[in-house]
Structure formats: C-alpha cells, structure tokens
C-alpha cells in the first residue's frame, strides 16, 4: 500500500472527497515528521512507534583509498512494530 492507496481507502471508507482525504493523510504525515524533527516520538497504539536515534560523530575510513574521514553526528528515524501488528501479521 502506498500513499495514494491510503487516500483512496480513506475516501471510500469515510465517504469524503479525494481532496479532503488527501488533506487528512498529508496532515497526518506532516505532523509525524514535525514530531520526529523535534526529537519526539510518534506513537500509534497497537500499530507502531517512530523515534529518533542520535549518533555521535566518529572517524571512519574510505574503503577505496584507506583515507581517514570525519563522520558528522546524525539523527536517524527508526520504526518499532507494536504487539497487535505483530500478532495480525503472524496469523
């Protein structure tokens, strides 16, 4: 399922227009992205949670040349599956 499939399902289930469904889906994803950008968790009970892991900078090595390279600190989003989703998928 992709974003357009989700919009179509919302349109059908809720009986709203495609434009309204698109606005709801975009709002949902935009707010989740804002929360993660602020370092907060985005949690949907029973389904999943998204959170940000912070990595410190370190010195790496270019495998091609062997040259030492400074790697900057970074934040990466992670997904954790909820118990109910695990059970539904495992059926």
UniProtKB/TrEMBL annotation:
Entry coiled-coil feature ranges: none
Pfam families: Bac_DNA_binding (PF00216)
Keywords: DNA-binding
Molecular function GO labels: DNA binding; structural constituent of chromatin
GO cellular component terms given for this protein: cytosol
InterPro entries, sorted: Hist_DNA-bd, IHF-like_DNA-bd_dom_sf
The UniProt record lists the keyword DNA-binding: yes
Similarity field: Belongs to the bacterial histone-like protein family.
The name this protein goes by in its record: Integration host factor subunit beta
